[in-house]
Design a protein that fits this description.
With 558 residues, the protein is α/β, with parallel strands linked by helices. It has three domains: 170 residues, HUPs (Rossmann fold), CATH 3.40.50.620; 109 residues, Glutamyl-tRNA Synthetase, Domain 3 (Glutamyl-tRNA Synthetase, domain 3, Alpha-Beta Complex); 124 residues, Ribosomal Protein L25, Chain P (Beta Barrel), CATH 2.40.240. The chain is built from twelve helices and 28 strands. The strands form seven sheets. A seven-stranded mixed sheet has the order 13-26-27-28-24-25-14. The protein has a seven-stranded mixed sheet with strand order 22-19-20-21-15-18-23, with no helix packed on it. The longest helix has 16 residues. The radius of gyration is 31 Å and the shape is elongated. The two termini are 35 Å apart. The structure holds adenosine-5'-triphosphate and magnesium ion. Adenosine-5'-triphosphate binds next to helix 2 and strand 9.
Amino acid sequence: MSNPTPIPAANFIRNIVAEDLAQAKNGDRVATRFPPEPNGYLHIGHAKSICLNFGIARDFNGVCHMRFDDTNPAKEDTEYVDSILDTVQWLGFDWGNHLYYASDHFEKCYAYAEQLIKAGKAYVDSLSAEDIRSHRGTLTEPGKNSPFRERSSAESTDLFHRMRAGEFADGQHVLRLKIDMASPNMNLRDPAIYRIRHVPHWRTGNTWCIYPMYDYAHAISDAEEHITHSICTLEFEDHRPLYDWVVENTAVPSRPYQYEFSRLNLTYTLMSKRLLLELVTQGTVSGWDDPRMPTLVGLRRRGYTPQAIRLFCDRIGVSKADSLIDVSVLEDCLRTDLNERALRRVAVLDPVRLTIDNYPDGKTEECEAPNHPQHPEWGKRTIPFAKELVIEREDFMAEPTKGFFRLTPGGEVRLRYAYIIKCTSFETDAAGQVTVVHADYLPDTRSGTPGADAHKVKGNIHWLSVDHSQTAEVRLYDRLFTHANPASVENYQTVLNANSIEARKECRVESALLSAQVGEPIQFERNGYFAVDSRDSNAGQPVFNRAVTLRDSSAKPR
Ligand code: ATP
Ligand code: MG
């Protein structure tokens, strides 16, 4: 089995890492980190960051730290932590023994803050949040110094200690860096680095009632962990001077550098965790792992593979240009992976009865079908042929349109792996809906027998025997949104696709499919790639999700 994990293409960040190694900037060390906030499930955008950070570590003989940014105790949950760890491993990456939490560094953050106060580089500000905002200035006007800015180090130290001791209410004081209230970069206008929050933390419990702000804690964590390349998305570009200020003005043990790349955005997809949480809490989807979600647990349940996602991350590349990637690129990566690896099976998703009138009652023949057309070594399975069959409703047309080469009254078609048949008649119900198609088979045309191909037909359709197949539920998915960029619409609710899921409970499948396992990639011939649903399947009674169709149909009107 070949595995399409590509050798990642060069990109500007990889080039920087290679150059730094060549110049021994950090000796021979490369250390990156992936720092999610445990306030939601990872999405396909995070996969881009994971593949970049862990991929660099892998390819440059370095390490990538798994680090939770747990500086915001109110929004975080261990449910998210567990899922994030599981998902990174599922994607195929390994942090070894480098699992960290920003909260591991809270004591260090505190100690460096004390030193900054002592050095006159930080002060406790007692302005209200509102006054701090109004002193901040705007992009075009400088800010104003706080009246507490020139407070003595001793007084700030005392207040900071009492903040930690829990003497003050939330919002009563903050600790700010003393940088420059007139800086054109708002992030340098005396940013707050500590705030009071009387909220228990899921890891540190009630040890702290003050918490460091992300920008500060992040820079300290990177430096404490001896990260060499701190890679983040472009919205942090303006924060880089603050990052540098923190590592240069504290006695941290190493000097990491920050590099930024552009976020992944996908068409027909919302990517922000906040909005994805909304979809879950409002019941628009069934959960974070709904197969229509762009979360990695959702994609996995849908039938996406780690190989396909890694291939996608490689194909889209890494740059500083804002990008909106067509979701068909992701879908195509899944096809590329599964075409190679998926077992072939037959399922009839919208069955209509086909009776072979000249075939003996009660007779069956075992027709052989390869498990994979390009892998003869994977062997064959048999599909029983009999008088009463089902075919796809759309493979028969009573009044064929031009160019329709499948079954039509009087027309001939090959039943894949079996005989050529000629349609003799059909029956309809009161509503005009076809209920049974009648045909005769041509005995000398059985696939695999000498001369079978002498008789030419244009169409080739799949089928199953009514008595030798099983009923199963199959779920077909479409995009969750009808608008290519739902984030750009004022209210994304107005562009939800009402037909994004279609559960078909009366599909017919090969009997062998009843023992299909979660995680086993399967192609239903002509119908797409499918996966066993991990949530709603029962033993011997799988529910199948369509991961992707066989061909890109996005050009067609939907
Ligand atoms: P969201 O806005 O979706 O909530 P986030 O940036 O707040 O995402 P974090 O948990 O902080 O999510 O992200 C962890 C890492 O993943 C960060 O380094 C972040 O830059 C990166 N990341 C998040 N979203 C994307 C994306 N769409 N494309 C690439 N990287 C991303
Ligand atoms: Mg975030």
